[in-house]
């Protein structure tokens, strides 16, 4: 078959989880699915198709049906996880639990990991990954570090330096050197008052700050399952993590049988 006769590969479909928040537009002030545009813009700019996944009632059947339609998954930022999920009482500064979103994202992530669906976690998404795999969180970093530099407040993102582990999937996406003893240093936008404490099963720390805050992890043995505590969608001129996810999702899509092939078999 010539190149001109080769079947067209459609763009991969990337699911992004959303917030459920009280939202006001025009005369309406109602609970609504919400996600900042920078998230799905990053996906589409990298060649993916963005599909939003609002919190909703969850079952094994529903999760399977959703994941069957996706080539990649992003668990986005947002409110704190319920501390009961990792065996703690809530800190005074911890957000009121959102059990609907916690259950929805945990179920989607668990199913995605089981089927090796390419996954990227962002901020809360990194925490969902860690807790789903049995880890825990620092509920309020100022208590641990004595500084609020990771969450300035008022929607203002801070910039912190992170050291990226050489030879990691993350380093490869960032074009960091694969060998040597010196990690790459990268400045990233952050807005979080919680962070990973006890590491979940199978996870490897791939980026951290000079005061020990874990800023990136990846699941060992997975084709593409990584998460960052920072907000890569805010670095609009540096979409390498999104590009890596879209590329992995395209590979995943091409590797599974096409519905017409299944029908013909």
From TrEMBL:
PROSITE patterns: GATASE_TYPE_1 (PS51273)
Species: Subtercola boreus
Keyword set includes Hydrolase: yes
Gene3D superfamilies: 3.40.50.880
Coiled-coil spans in chain: none
Gene Ontology terms: cellular component: cytosol
CDD domains according to UniProt: GATase1_2
UniProt KW Isomerase keyword: no
Protein name: Gamma-glutamyl-gamma-aminobutyrate hydrolase
A Gene Ontology molecular function term of the record: gamma-glutamyl-gamma-aminobutyrate hydrolase activity
GO biological process, one term: polyamine catabolic process
